[in-house]
Inverse folding.
């Protein structure tokens, strides 16, 4: 019985070392404060120059626009 456990442990260590000795890691979820900072970041409208939050802005072809200017495009 102990011999089976020992063999199982050795095989487990060999598999672990075969895959680089690293366990897969889960991506860390962003904290609420980090999300709030990202939402509150101001960006300049490419057309009229007003500053709006990233949450309120619209990105078209890589440029940020306020809602009014995005509606005119």
């Amino acid at each position: 019985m102990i011999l089976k456990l020992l063999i199982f442990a050795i095989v487990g260590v060999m598999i672990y070392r075969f895959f680089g000795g690293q366990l897969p890691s889960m991506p860390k979820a962003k904290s609420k404060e980090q999300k709030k900072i990202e939402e509150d970041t101001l960006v300049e409208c490419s057309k009229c120059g007003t500053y709006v939050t990233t949450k309120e802005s619209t990105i078209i072809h890589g440029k940020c626009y306020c809602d009014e200017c995005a509606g005119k495009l």
User: Anything to note?
Assistant: Helices lie at 2-18, 32-39, 67-72. The chain is about 40% helix and 15% strand. The domain at 36-73 is CATH 3.30.60 (Wheat Germ Agglutinin (Isolectin 2); domain 1). The chain has a mean pLDDT of 84.
